[in-house]
Amino acid sequence: MIGRDTTDEARGIYDELYKGAADNDAITGLGDAAYWSKTFDLEVLVGRYVVGVYVDHLVADRENVEKAIATKVLARLP
User: Fold this and answer.
1) Res. 2: pLDDT tops 80
2) Domain count, the chain
3) For the whole model, what pTM was predicted?
4) Which of 33, 49, 50, 56 is most solvent-facing, going by the fewest CB within 10 Å?
């Protein structure tokens, strides 16, 4: 998790990560913005935080497992 002083700083980091993930799919309903990438897994922007969730590539249904973990993490952010 990356925490920044401002939402603009966090958005900048998220945007750079998004650009670097060529195979990303936008996800709605998770944070302010989110994407899942087969290469870099799940990244979520929420306020001044960027949360990355990475589950081993051998885990079955990895995308849904990462979404479930992210949902629990986001619920605990201040």
Assistant:
1) no
2) 1
3) 0.88
4) 56
